[in-house]
Every structure is written in structure tokens, then in C-alpha cells.
Specification:
The complex is a heterodimer. By secondary structure, chain A is α+β, with helices and mostly antiparallel strands. Chain A folds into two domains: 116 residues, Alpha-Beta Plaits, CATH 3.30.70.20; 148 residues, Beta Complex (RNA Polymerase Alpha Subunit, Chain A, domain 2), CATH 2.170.120.12. Chain A is 21% helix and 30% strand. In chain A, the strands form four sheets. In chain A, strands 1, 2, 3, 4, 11 and 14 form a six-stranded antiparallel beta sheet that branches. A four-stranded antiparallel beta sheet of chain A has the order 5-10-6-8, with helices on one face. A two-stranded antiparallel ribbon of chain A has the order 7-9. Chain B is an alpha+beta fold. In chain B, strands 21, 27, 28, 29, 30 and 31 form a six-stranded mixed beta sheet that branches. Chain B has a six-stranded mixed beta barrel with strand order 34-50-35-48-47-53. The longest helix of chain B has 29 residues. The N and C termini of chain B lie far apart (98 Å). Classes of the chains: A alpha+beta, B alpha+beta. At the A-B interface, β2, α3, α4, β11 and β14 of A face α22, α24, β52 and β53 of B. Chain A: Keywords: DNA-directed RNA polymerase, Nucleus, Transcription. Chain A: Pfam families: RNA_pol_A_bac, RNA_pol_L. Chain A: Its main location: nucleus. Chain A: Belongs to the archaeal Rpo3/eukaryotic RPB3 RNA polymerase subunit family.
């Protein structure tokens, strides 16, 4: 890397600074140089500045579907990339079932286990439309109510209860509080909805996937319950995590240390299970190995297992291939922007606390 | 052993293109040139014989044959006064399991018994013939019940016998449950297999003084005795309990009619060395001037221990020689010759041992052991009870006839008067105390409660063998692994600690024999050319070249062509003409052929090989796979036979059909193992790659596998165990073994496949602690359900007065009077599905205040006082009522069983273990985002410290990780059966690694991980993959305990002891020593007095005794000095004051001398 004043580091230092070397036995130079003045003596300034960051930072989206996305995030430090990953897993809020009111459960699955299973079902509800539930007054702005009422007739076949059978109740809870003190009043339910949730979102607030098995019922068994979903973050419980997982890997870089020809080349190509290498025909029956798809490298290290003088495997320290697998409440790209917003908020908080 | 006849359908070398036997391979794991996949034999064997078949077989033998033999031997009882009044048992059999309710017979099922605390028993029915009255009129009474006998599950008498899975489900029974146990008073009891030294066999050994002894424990139906012949100071003596002193053996021989010394020497053997050794004994006899039988008997008469009735010693010794001395050798019509020869053989073997120490017997040798099974034990008990019952009946009859009753009784009314058989059997099985006076048997702990902690625990119980020795003995011999255990007893599965090596477990394919008819076998031996003993002179017996033929420890005779005789016997066995468990063993060293058909021998099936060529061919296996052929067909066709430990010595058993190797001629191979993995037992069989582990690790796992939580049985949710641990999401292991599939562990797993990263993390992973991923726990990893049963009995006090269950009391507005009744339903029982908290009432029981009230007056509400059952739980935990069951117990009292369920997620301190004896507690729980993640986005479920590997050397765990990782990537369950690599029952590491590479993982299984905290790559590649982890039953919640102030013991006023009583934590002696050494006297004072049991006493300075304080007069007073002048106050531990008073009560006066105050 060229420094602003023109002078540059010697190659081996530059390599250490910008690459992680994946040797056969262990990776080296994994942590990089954090101190901005580490190479000041050589006239190289590695300090972070907004201008530099803006100049170098780049995002390239490779794949984007409803469920997952993969993009390259270039020109950023591992700590910041990791911050996004951590926020995605633990701090972007979603809605998840938190309270279950069990009316009837004669199935073999215990109430607590059934509730636990319900909690883990991803909901198709945009958490940005809801508030966190504060002092236990469930209303239309912080709670989504679902109902499940299935029974298996006596004499019929065994029945599988799927998540699709959860029925959204936009008007709030239908269960009345059996409070003997206020028997005269109009029956109070477990929620106090001011208005219907019908219009809060253009889509109905159903579950995301209809084919998740909740329970199985034998003949004569039944489940009747009401489930209340609230907003929360993955830090508290994994059910509120908006991602199945989110992770990154550093861009692989595969370097041939010397020219590999003919038989050796073929052997090398055969070794790699993901076909990183290819053969280039030099004419006259001469063949040469070239690195064709370094990105595909999974670091199985087959190419360096027996002889590590031919190939060197490296990772580019500031190039991240970031993958987000959404559980469905929000599309992955929105999740990422949410994560950025949360990080921004955090920074604001730090700044305001410091000033 | 060259086969005498080959099996008729054994075409030579069919599809058996064998390379010429060139010894090229040295290794046992040499590839098989034409492998016949014999594995299918194993499931076929287990289908026929089952996992606990030996228990069921032995019980079946008892209820079908044994019980009849017992009754036939004692079939007639008669009155003493009038032998014409008698009762004769014509037949006996076991009915259907049933219970008598109000003179009605109802059939019962095992599960019904478990739930209602009943005994699963069936009536013992006899057909009797008896005479009545003075006329001796004959009467017959068919189907007469003399008692109820607990029935072993899945035996012939059990309703579950021969039922298929659907029918079992209808009975509420789990199809995977092996049976073989009893249900007594609602608890499942196993009669453990008892290990004993074999009966009726000569054992040459040295005693604790180093003397050479030959001992025989004789056991017949009538008597049990122990005969010891011992060489002391070069002279040979007989030790028998009936004699006060050792008797010179030559005297014994003379007493039995061998009067000349020459004859004795001839019987022992003509070798002059024997003569030399016998010389001193003969001389001793001569110096005692004993030359004739009469003199010998007289000599022995003087030494009889106690003279019996009438103090007549004369003739006693002859009776002893006949009935006690080597009692199993019969004396017919006063013919002592068999006994003489037997004694001579004992002597000869003893002398052999002196001449050549190789010929000593090993007591720990499995061939010298017999396993006593439940059928035999119940049979002993039944025999005793049956005789007791008859004795009672005779006693009563005698008593009645003495009193000259007007209407004469008959026996049929007498035999059932007491519940001798029913209660005797029930008591013995439920307490485990086998007290049989007749056989001087006093054993404790014969039966044990079947542990239902996990499926493996209950299976392990069924194969367990308890030792004969007391466990305190320090000797290492019986604890050591015996080479003869190979294939019979599991080398891994033994507990740690005091019972280590003594308690053993059966291997997978072991069978324990039951008794077989002796008569036909004996006749067969004679027709095969055995020369009868009675026709032989002493000289001829030991003629060179001829072998003695021993049949179940008895000398039958001799045979001149031993090998031929053995081959003939084996041919008969292989063709099914004699029982398949008859063993024929040629002992070259002793010049003996042992034929054994007795029960309790361990044996296992092996494939017969003709000159190294397996008789089982591929087409046989195909027939088996197609279902045309069963395991019994293999036996019948002479392809497979059972060998017991002794006969194994005559066989050369190869692991695989192979070419010559290790210097073994292929042609000398007689048998081939069915599967090498059958060397292990059921519990050790679930360890993957155990042959790569350090041996004690497998042993540890065997102990731990029994503590793992999982699924217990298919009917687990309908059972009412007092404590049940279930894993919510139990999985089958990714890395399985063949044994796992055979025993059904894949259906009732006890663990989960966790992705493990072997690395150090956070410092909370030292000392084998593991770091767990919080998100994994959130998603259900390690979640378990603990179900506890709480039983309440509604007592009855007679006259129709009993406890009652009251509705929850409410005030006028309908609000509960007491908050702790919130979990109650309107009927006074707790409602299923209700959350129940600490101190809540679960049964609102009320007890009448007066229980002996005059009958007729109705009880009102006032006559009852509350005696509710209060739930004692952990504060802050949510427990739920699972079920409430009502039933009436055997005394017709109402029993309420509440089952309370608690779902727990793992917490710090809970114990986990892999299948390689690597246990560890959860050290900390870490958020998922802090966990490392791999290039593929995989985040481990738990992190294990690599320090667990070097010292433990559990390579199997590493291979399990690799295999599991390959398994998840390629979608095929991988196998890790013991020694399974050559036969394809275990995947090789190399293959696994290639699979890994194919799916983009490293060859070594190590992944490139990124730190979850800092985001940069970790400095090492981390070994990561799935390992099957078990959650063990030890959980912090059940163990944690702390207290500030709390309850105290009434007597000493010191804090109570133990967690269950909310006790204090003791500052023990050693802790006290530390404080003394440190000089922290005030701390000692505070701990031992102030925080324990401080008490203010009044001490009289004059007499030094304790006085008292009069609160009315506000003065202290000494009751000794009768004044209050010299009183001083002081504080002392209450226990100290108590000690003084107790001493005073024993006339010891402790006086206190005060220096100040």
C-alpha cells in the first residue's frame, strides 16, 4: 500500500500488514498492526482518517435474495466488520413469541417445551412498527397476538401441527381474565388494544414459514393456546435474533510461489476440492498451473499439506466477504442498514457522553 | 481338531477363490480375500436370544421344568399319627398373571402393576390328591392355588411373551424394554447374576499358608458340602467340617474299603514319584496302627465334631463319608468305589501340582466359574418355601390330631393357611435378602431396583454380574482382567472403586446355560465307548493313553481314544442330537475329557471352520438376509456352535477367515469369530472407536453412560417413577456403532450432537470445564425435564373413619383463604398443567382429630384438621404439575401420586460428558456473538479445552469428531465399532479425512476460525466438529446449598446437617486446625459458639455445678448448694451443657472451676 507521502513499506512488511498468511500448520500475522504510528519511523502513516476511509471503502453485492445476501466489504478494519456481525446477531430487534397462554394441551409435548418451540418460530412482522413492551400493558403497538386451536379427532390419523396453523388475531387477545373481583365489568382480556392491527402493515402479521412442525397430536389430543409476540433483541434470547447467522470471511488470495508445470500442475489442480487452480496451456505440450478462482478457497490446505513451498495461501485483511442469512422478519439488506444505524446510534451515544 | 464328519451341505470352496496360502501378512487386520459378511448373524442372534435372554431362559426353565422337579421330589406329605392321611401333589404349574380382588380374579399387566404399586405375580396352581377322615376317602382337587409367584417380564408366564410391537403398545409397554426383571410392589427389581466358583469340580490351589490343597464344593439337591484335601508337612490330610481334626488321607481311603497301601498307590498312579510323595502319609497311617477298614472308621469316629442325638459316635464317620465327603459322588448300596477313585483322582491331581506347578487351577479362570441366574435363585427360594409350607401343614395336622378333633381335617385345608409362598417370594425379591437356612445361604443385595435413569442404565443392570467375594478384599487377582474373559465378559464395563473388577458385565453374544438332562448324555457317553468306572481296577484307570471321562464333575469312566470320543460327541452336538450347550473339553494336561451340561456356564457362538475354511458361506448369509434362514438353522445345520470357556481351549479361533499369518497354520484353525465387536458388552458398545482410547477411559464412560439423560423408554411419559430425567431434544449419535443399532440406542438416545471447538477460551474452561454457547442453549441444547413423583396416602383408621380430601377453602367472595392453595383444583387435588411453586399445597388432605370415635356418629368438618401435602421446591423456579394419578393400593387405601415436572436449561455447573470418559462441568455460558466462527459461518455449541487430550489419550474422541464432521457434510452416519476397520464396521480415519477434503474442510479437521470478540482470525487452526455429548444427572440445581441462619437440631441446638434439612455448613476439625494455627481465636469463638449453639448457664463458683435462673425472683440459684450466693453467669455451647448433664445422669460429676467473674 502506498502511503500519502509517497514512501512505502518494504514488501515483507507490507505483506504482514495487509495479509494474513495461512501456513500449513497455523496462520500467522492474524492480528495486524493497530497502532497508527507503527511504521512512522519508515515514513509510513497508517492512521485512520475519514478521507482515507471514504476513498478506499467499497461495498459490492454478490448475491441478494429474500433470505440471504453476500457482499464484499472492502477497505475496513476487522473490528468494524465484526461490530456489524455482532450487532446483526444480538442487537437488531425482531418480534418473537414471548408469552403463551395455555388453555388446553393434551398432547405429549409439555407446555414449557411447546412454548419454547413457539418462541423460536420466525414471525413475518416488521419490528420497526412496534415498540418494546415496557410495564406490562400489552397493546396494539407492542404485542402481536396469535391463536392456535387444533385438535385431532378420536379415531383419526395422527396429526402434525404446523406453524401455519397459528392464527393472527389483529384485534388482540380473545381470552378473558377470569378475575372474580370484576365480574360485573365487561370482560377484560389479556391485551388492551386501542385499535385493530389490521392496518399497521400492508402484509398480515403471520408467521414467516408455514411448514415448521410445532407438535404432533394423537387421536383425541388437542392444543388450544394464545401466544403473544413482543419485540426484543438477540442478546436476551436467540429467538429475537434476526439472522440465522451472519458472518464474514476475509478474501482468499492464493499465490503460486514458483512456476508449477506439467505433472506437478495437474497434481495440484487435482488436489484442490474446490478447483481454485487451473491449467494453462503453454503450447508445445507444456502446461502451467494458474490460480483461477482464489475466491472459492475454503482453506482446506490440501495444496500445502505435504509441500508448502509451491503455494501460499493468504487472506486480505481489509476485504470481507460478508454473508447475512435472515430469518425472515426483515430482508437481509435492511438488516444490514439497521445494524449500521444501531452502530451509529451507539457512536452518537459515546460522543454525547464524552462531550 | 479335525472334524469327524463334515456338514452334509458344505460344498468345498464354493465361490472361494483363495490365493495359495503364502504367509505374506503379519497383521491380524489383514484384508480378507473373500470376505463373507458375517455381521448379519449378530442381529439374527440377538433376535433369537435377545439381550437378556439368559435371565428369561433361566426363569422359563424354572417355571416349566424346575418347579415340577422340586414338587416331584417333595410330592407327598402325611400325618405323623396316621400315614393314611396324606396329600400328594400330582402336578404344578403357573397360571396367568392375575390378582384376586374381592374373590374375583382379574388379569393384570406389568404396567398396571407399576402404576398401582402391585406385584406382578401369577398363581402357583397344583393338582392334589388327598385323603379325608378315618375312612381315608380319596379326594382330588385340581387347580388349587397355593400362592402367588412374581413373574419375570417376557417369560413364558408373562402376558408380554411373544407379543409384537403393536400389542406391546396396547399393554403400555415399551418394545425396546428387554424384560427379564420382576415388578414387586410397583418397583422393578432385577435379580442380578451371581458369580460363583463352579460346584462339583476339583480345584487345586494353595491356601494362605502356602499349602497345596484340592477342594471340591459338592452340591446336590439334598446337601451342600465342601471337601478339602490338604498337604501339610508332606503328609496329606482331609479337612471336613464334621471332623475336629484333619484325618490322614490314607485313613480315609482305608475307611472306604481300600485296605492295602498298594491299592491306594495303584489308584493314584504307578509313577514312582507319586509313591514317594505318598510315602509319609502311608507311614503315618501305619504308625497309628490302622490297617483295616474297621480300625480306620474307629479312628475317625473319635474325631467327629458333634455326635448328634444320643451321643453315639459309633458309625457316624461312615455316614459322614457317605453323605458329606465329596457328597456329589453317589454311594449306591454301600459301594464306596466311585468315591475312592474320585479321592484318588483328587490326590493324583494334587501330587501333579506339586510335581509341576503349571497344573494348578486358577480360581479366577472363567471356566471355573458358574453364573447363578434368577431362575436358579428363585428356584432355591421356592424349594425352601414349598418345604416350609408342607412342614407347617404337617405340624398343624399333628397338632390337630393330638387334640382329637371330632371332624378330622384334611391337608388341602392346611397347605394354604399361611401365605408362605406369596409373602416369602415377595419379601425376598423386594428386599434382596436371600435367607435359606436349609442351604445355609444368607445373601444380601441379590435383587436390586432396576435403574431407569437412562435406557443404557437399565440394560446395564440386566447384564451385570455381582461377585461372590466380599468387596473389601484387597487382593488384585480376582479384579484383574482374565484372558479367559475374552468374548464372554466385557473387558471395559466395570465400576470404579471398591467393586472394580469384581462386578462384571456380560459381553454382547454371551449366553449363560441352563441345566440339561443328564441321563441321556450319560448313556450316550457309554455307548460311545466309555468304559464304566465300576468295571475298572485301580491300575487300569490311569493306564497311559487313556483319558478319564468326567461328566459334570463326576468320573464316568475312561476312554482309550479320547480325541475320537470328543469328536464324536461334538458331531452329535452339531447335528442337534444332544443339546447345543453341552461342552466337550479334552484336557491334555490332566488326561481328562470333561463333558459339561450343567447350568451357569458362559458360552458364545462361533462359526465352525474346517481346516480354516468357514462353514458359513455367502449363500447362507444371503438366505439369512432374505429371511429364509434363522440363527437356529445355522445351529441345526452345524455351521455355528456354542463353545464354553473350557472348550475354547480346544479350539483355535481366528478373527477372520484368512491365509496363514503370525505363524499359525490356516489348517489348524477350527473356529472363526462371528464379529470381533462382540467382545464388548452393551454399555461399552456405544463408545465409538473404543480401540483407539486409553482403556480406563472406556471404563469411565461405561459408568457415565448410565448417568446420561435421554429417553428412557417409549412409555416414559406414562410411567410413574419417583424421579425421571428426560432430555427434551435427544438425538441419535452422528457417529454410531453397530452395537448402538442392535440395542436400540439410536431410538432411545441419551445425548446430543454438539459442535465442539477444541480450543482455549476465556479461562473459564480450566479443569475440564466447557464453555457453552448461549444461543445453543436458547435453541434447546441440553434442555431437560426432571419429573418427580410425590405420593400421598389417604389413611384409613377403621370404622369407616379415614382421611379426606377437602376442597380449597374460600371466603364468601370466593377468594382463597390461603394463597398456597392456588394450584389446587376444585376437588382438592392439584390440577394438571398448573404451575406449582414452593410451599404450595398439592393435596388438600384433612385428618380426623380423633380416630377412635364410636361408630355411627357422622364426622363433621370440625372433627378434621388440615394435614395438607405441601410442595417443597426451589424458589424462583417454575415447576408444573404433569399428572395426578389416583389408585387404591393393596390395602385398599387411596393413593394419590402427583407428578411434578420441571424443565431446566443448562446452567453453569451442570455436568456434561462425551462418550470417552471426558466429563466436565459447564464453566461459563457465552453469547453467540462472542463465540468464534468459521469460514463457513459455523459457530460451535461448546468449547472444550485441548488440555483434556494429552493426558487422557482419548484418540477415539478425535476420530469421533472427524467422523461426525464427515457425517454431517456427506449425509451418511459414520460407524466406529470396535475393531471394525477391517470388516467395514468402522470408518477409517483416512477415508474420513478424504470425505472432509471433498467437502472443503481441512484434511486434519482443523478449521480457520475468526475471533467473535475482536473479529480477526485466530492464531491457530482449531479442531472443530460434532461430538455426541451427554448431559449427566448431576445438576447444580439439585445440589447448591447455602444458609445464613436456619433450623436447629432439638437436642443439641446446633444447626441441622445436610442440604435436605437446610443445614449449616460445618467448620470441621481440619478447618479448625487451620484457624488455631493461624491464631484466629476470635473467629474460632465466633464459629464454634456464637454461630452455633450459644447458651447462658449459671455456674456455682463453690461447687462448680450448673444452677438455674429463677425468672420470678430474678436470681440465680444453685440446686446443689441450695443457695444463690456464689452464682456466676457464663456462656458455653449448649452441647457442652448437655454433656455435663448427661454425665451427671451417669454419676459422673463434671465441675467447672471459674477463675474470674
Amino acid at each position: 500500500m502506498e502511503s500519502p507521502d509517497g514512501s512505502s513499506l518494504p514488501d515483507f512488511l507490507e505483506l504482514q500488514r495487509t495479509r494474513v498468511l495461512c501456513k500449513a500448520d497455523a496462520p500467522t500475522h492474524t492480528e495486524g498492526f493497530q497502532y497508527s504510528g507503527a511504521f512512522a519511523a519508515m515514513g509510513v502513516d497508517t492512521s485512520v482518517s475519514v478521507e482515507k476511509f471514504c476513498k478506499n471503502f467499497k461495498i459490492e453485492i454478490n448475491r441478494l435474495t429474500d433470505e440471504d445476501m453476500e457482499f464484499d466489504m472492502i477497505g475496513i478494519d476487522a473490528s468494524i466488520a465484526n461490530a456489524f456481525r455482532r450487532i446483526l446477531i444480538a442487537e437488531v430487534p425482531t418480534m418473537a413469541i414471548e408469552k403463551v397462554f395455555m388453555v388446553d394441551n393434551t398432547s405429549v409435548i409439555a407446555d414449557e417445551v411447546l412454548s419454547h418451540r413457539l418462541g423460536l418460530i420466525p414471525l413475518d412482522a416488521d419490528p420497526r412498527l412496534f415498540d418494546y413492551i415496557s410495564d406490562d400493558v400489552p397493546n396494539e403497538r407492542n404485542t402481536i397476538v396469535y391463536k392456535l386451536h387444533v385438535s385431532c379427532e378420536k379415531g383419526s390419523q395422527r396429526l402434525t401441527v404446523k406453524s401455519g396453523q397459528l392464527e393472527w388475531l389483529p384485534e388482540g387477545s380473545q381470552l378473558t381474565m377470569a378475575s372474580p373481583a370484576q365480574s360485573g365489568d365487561n370482560q377484560r382480556t389479556y391485551t388492551s388494544f386501542g385499535q385493530s392491527q389490521q392496518n399497521t402493515s400492508e402484509r398480515p402479521l403471520d408467521v414467516k414459514y408455514n411448514d415448521i412442525t410445532i407438535a404432533r397430536l394423537g387421536p383425541g389430543q388437542a392444543i388450544e393456546l394464545e401466544a403473544h409476540a413482543v419485540k426484543g433483541v438477540g442478546k436476551v434470547h436467540a429467538k429475537w435474533s434476526p439472522v440465522a447467522t451472519a458472518w464474514y470471511r476475509m478474501l482468499p488470495e492464493v499465490v503460486l510461489l514458483k512456476e508449477i508445470k506439467n505433472g506437478d500442475a495437474e497434481e495440484l489442480v487435482k488436489k484442490c476440492p474446490v478447483n481454485v487452480f487451473d491449467i494453462e496451456d503453454l503450447g508445445k505440450g507444456e502446461k502451467r498451473a494458474v490460480v483461477a478462482k482464489p475466491r472459492a478457497c475454503t482453506l482446506c490446505r490440501e495444496c500445502v499439506r505435504l509441500a508448502d513451498d509451491q503455494v501460499e495461501l493468504r487472506r486480505v485483511r481489509d476485504h470481507f466477504i460478508f454473508t447475512i442469512e435472515s430469518t425472515g422478519s426483515l430482508p437481509p439488506e435492511v438488516l444490514f442498514t439497521e445494524a449500521v444505524n444501531i452502530l451509529e446510534e451507539k457512536c452518537e451515544r459515546v460522543i454525547s457522553e464524552l462531550s | 481338531m479335525p472334524p469327524a464328519t463334515s456338514a452334509p451341505d458344505a460344498p468345498v470352496a464354493e465361490g472361494d477363490a483363495e490365493a495359495p496360502p503364502v504367509p505374506t501378512y503379519r497383521s491380524l487386520a489383514a484384508p480378507v480375500s473373500n470376505p463373507v459378511d458375517k455381521f448379519a448373524l449378530l442381529p439374527a442372534f440377538l433376535k433369537v436370544r435377545g439381550l437378556v435372554k439368559e435371565h428369561i431362559d433361566s426363569f422359563n426353565y424354572f417355571i416349566t421344568k424346575g418347579i415340577k422337579n422340586i414338587v416331584r421330589a417333595n410330592n407327598r406329605i402325611e400325618a405323623r399319627s396316621d400315614p393314611g392321611i396324606y396329600l400328594e401333589y400330582k402336578n404344578i404349574y403357573i397360571g396367568e398373571p392375575s390378582v384376586q380382588v374381592d374373590f374375583r380374579v382379574e388379569t393384570i399387566t406389568p404396567h398396571f402393576c407399576r402404576l398401582t404399586d402391585r406385584t406382578y405375580s401369577a398363581p402357583v396352581i397344583v393338582d392334589v390328591e388327598y385323603t379325608v377322615g378315618k375312612t381315608h376317602a380319596k379326594h382330588r382337587k385340581p387347580s388349587f392355588t397355593i400362592g402367588y409367584m412374581p413373574i419375570m417380564l417376557r417369560s413364558y408366564a408373562c402376558v408380554l411373551n411373544g407379543k409384537d410391537e403393536a400389542e406391546l403398545a396396547r399393554y403400555g409397554e415399551c418394545p425396546l424394554d428387554p424384560g427379564g426383571y420382576f415388578i414387586v410392589k410397583g418397583t422393578e427389581k432385577v435379580i442380578l447374576i451371581q458369580e460363583q466358583l463352579s460346584k462339583n469340580r476339583i480345584i487345586i490351589d494353595t491356601d494362605n499358608k502356602g499349602r497345596v490343597t484340592a477342594s471340591v464344593t459338592s452340591s446336590t439337591h439334598e446337601v451342600k458340602s465342601k471337601t478339602v484335601i490338604c498337604m501339610d508337612k508332606e503328609k496329606i490330610y482331609l479337612h471336613l467340617n464334621q471332623f475336629t481334626k484333619p484325618i490322614p488321607i490314607i485313613v480315609v481311603m482305608k475307611a472306604m474299603g481300600i485296605e492295602t497301601d498298594q491299592e491306594v498307590v495303584q489308584m493314584v498312579g504307578r509313577d514312582p514319584r507319586y509313591g514317594d510323595l505318598l510315602y509319609l502319609s502311608i507311614q503315618e497311617c501305619a504308625t497309628e496302627r490302622i490297617y483295616t477298614q474297621q480300625q480306620a472308621l474307629q479312628y475317625m469316629d473319635d474325631k467327629v465334631t458333634y455326635a448328634g442325638a444320643g451321643n453315639i459316635k459309633d458309625g457316624r464317620s461312615k455316614l459322614i463319608l457317605r453323605d458329606v465327603f465329596v457328597a456329589h459322588v453317589p454311594v449306591n448300596n454301600g459301594n464306596f468305589q466311585p468315591k475312592c477313585i474320585y479321592t484318588a483322582v483328587m490326590l493324583r491331581r494334587m501330587l501333579d501340582a506339586i510335581l509341576n506347578s503349571d497344573t494348578f487351577d486358577d480360581k479366577d479362570y472363567v471356566g471355573n466359574k458358574r453364573l447363578e441366574l434368577s431362575g436358579q435363585l428363585v428356584s432355591l427360594l421356592f424349594e425352601d418355601l414349598f418345604k416350609t409350607m408342607n412342614t407347617y401343614a404337617v405340624d398343624r395336622m399333628n397338632k390337630n390330631s393330638d387334640m382329637a378333633r371330632s371332624s378330622p381335617l384334611d391337608f388341602s385345608q392346611l397347605i394354604m393357611q399361611q401365605d408362605v409362598i406369596t409373602s416369602g417370594l415377595e419379601r425376598a425379591i423386594s428386599t434382596g435378602n436371600w435367607d435359606i437356612k436349609r442351604f445355609k445361604m444368607h445373601r444380601k443385595g441379590v435383587s436390586q431396583v432396576l435403574s431407569r435413569l437412562s435406557y443404557m442404565a437399565s440394560l446395564g443392570y440386566m447384564t451385570r454380574i455381582t461377585p461372590q467375594f466380599e468387596k473389601t478384599r484387597k487382593t488384585s487377582g480376582p479384579r484383574a482382567l482374565q484372558p479367559s474373559q475374552w468374548g464372554m465378559l466385557c473387558p471395559c464395563d466395570t465400576p470404579e472403586g471398591e467393586a472394580c473388577g469384581l462386578t462384571k458385565n456380560l459381553a454382547l453374544m454371551t449366553h449363560v446355560t441352563t441345566d440339561q438332562e443328564e441321563g441321556p448324555l450319560r448313556n450316550l457317553c457309554f455307548s460311545l465307548g466309555v468304559e464304566d468306572l465300576s468295571l475298572l481296577s485301580g491300575e487300569e484307570i490311569h493306564a497311559p493313553g487313556s483319558f478319564l471321562v468326567m461328566f459334570n464333575g463326576l468320573i464316568l469312566g475312561k476312554h482309550r481314544q479320547p480325541q475320537r470320543f470328543a469328536n464324536n460327541m461334538r458331531t452329535f452336538r452339531r447335528s442337534g442330537k444332544i443339546g447345543e450347550f453341552v461342552s466337550v473339553f479334552v484336557n491334555e494336561k490332566q488326561h481328562c475329557i470333561h463333558i459339561a451340561s450343567d447350568g451357569g456356564r458362559v458360552c458364545r457362538p462361533l462359526i465352525i471352520a474346517d481346516k480354516g475354511r468357514s462353514r458359513v458361506k455367502e449363500h447362507h448369509m444371503k438366505e439369512l438376509r432374505d429371511g429364509i434362514r434363522s440363527f437356529d438353522d445355522f445351529l441345526r445345520d452345524g455351521l455355528i456352535e456354542y463353545l464354553d470357556v473350557n472348550e475354547e481351549n480346544n479350539a483355535l479361533i481366528a478373527l477372520y477367515e484368512h491365509v496363514d499369518q503370525d505363524g499359525v497354520q490356516r489348517s489348524s484353525i477350527t473356529h472363526i469369530e462371528i464379529e470381533p465387536m462382540t467382545i464388548l458388552g452393551v454399555v461399552a458398545g456405544l463408545i465409538p472407536y473404543p480401540h483407539h482410547n486409553q482403556s480406563p477411559r472406556n471404563t469411565y464412560q461405561c459408568a457415565m453412560g448410565k448417568q446420561a439423560m435421554g429417553n428412557i423408554a417409549y412409555n416414559q411419559l406414562f410411567r410413574a417413577d419417583s424421579l425421571l430425567y428426560l432430555l427434551v431434544y435427544a438425538q441419535r449419535p452422528l457417529l454410531t456403532t453397530k452395537t448402538i443399532e442392535l440395542v436400540g440406542y439410536d431410538k432411545l438416545g441419551a445425548g446430543q450432537n454438539a459442535t465442539v471447538a477444541v480450543m482455549s477460551y476465556s479461562g473459564y474452561d480450566i479443569e475440564d470445564a466447557i464453555v457453552m454457547n448461549k444461543s445453543s442453549l436458547d435453541r434447546g441444547f441440553g434442555r431437560c425435564i426432571a419429573m418427580k413423583k410425590y405420593t400421598v396416602t389417604s389413611e384409613k383408621y377403621g370404622d369407616g373413619i379415614s382421611d379426606r380430601i377437602a376442597k380449597p377453602q374460600r371466603d364468601r367472595d370466593g377468594v382463597l383463604i390461603k394463597q398456597n392453595m392456588r394450584a389446587l383444583d376444585e376437588d382438592g387435588f392439584v390440577a394438571p398443567g398448573q404451575i406449582i411453586r414452593n410451599h404450595d399445597i398439592y393435596v388438600n388432605k384433612q385428618t380426623p382429630k380423633v380416630t377412635n370415635r364410636t361408630p355411627g356418629t357422622a364426622l363433621t368438618d370440625r372433627d378434621y384438621r388440615d394435614s395438607p401435602a405441601v410442595y417443597k421446591g426451589v424458589d424462583g423456579e417454575t415447576t408444573v404439575v404433569d399428572r395426578v394419578m389416583l389408585c387404591s393400593d393393596t390395602n385398599d387405601k387411596l393413593t394419590i401420586k402427583c407428578i411434578i415436572r420441571h424443565t431446566r436449561r443448562p446452567e453453569v455447573g451442570d455436568k456434561f460428558s462425551s462418550r470417552h470418559g471426558q466429563k466436565g462441568v459447564c464453566g461459563t455460558i457465552v453469547q453467540q456473538e462472542d463465540f468464534p466462527f468459521s469460514e463457513k459461518g459455523i459457530c460451535p455449541d461448546l468449547i472444550m479445552n485441548p488440555h483434556g487430550f494429552p493426558s487422557r489419550m482419548t484418540i477415539g474422541k478425535m476420530i469421533e469428531l472427524l467422523g461426525g464432521k464427515a457425517g454431517v457434510s456427506c449425509g451418511r452416519f459414520h460407524y466406529g465399532s470396535i475393531f471394525g476397520e477391517p470388516s467395514g464396521n468402522a470408518d477409517k480415519v483416512e477415508d474420513i479425512s478424504h470425505t472432509l477434503v471433498k467437502h472443503g474442510f481441512s484434511y486434519s479437521g482443523k478449521d480457520f476460525l475468526y475471533s467473535g470478540i475482536l473479529g480477526h482470525p485466530l492464531q491457530a487452526y482449531v479442531f472443530m466438529g460434532p461430538i455426541y455429548y451427554q448431559k449427566l444427572k448431576h445438576m447444580v440445581l439439585d445440589k447448591m446449598h447455602a444458609r445464613a441462619s436456619g433450623p436447629r437440631v432439638l437436642l443439641t441446638r446446633q444447626p441441622t446437617e445436610g442440604r435436605s434439612r437446610d443445614g449449616g455448613l460445618r467448620l470441621g476439625e481440619m478447618e479448625r486446625d487451620c484457624l488455631i494455627a493461624y491464631g484466629a481465636s476470635m473467629l474460632i469463638f465466633e464459629r464454634l459458639l456464637l454461630s452455633s449453639d450459644p447458651y447462658q448457664v449459671q455456674v456455682c463458683r463453690k461447687c462448680g455445678l450448673l444452677g438455674y435462673y429463677n425468672y420470678k425472683l430474678k436470681t440465680s440459684f444453685c440446686s446443689m448448694c441450695k443457695n444463690g450466693e456464689n452464682m456466676a453467669k457464663m456462656r458455653m455451647p449448649y452441647a457442652c451443657k448437655l454433656l455435663f448433664q448427661e454425665l451427671q445422669s451417669m454419676n459422673v460429676v463434671p465441675r467447672l472451676t471459674l477463675t474470674e467473674g
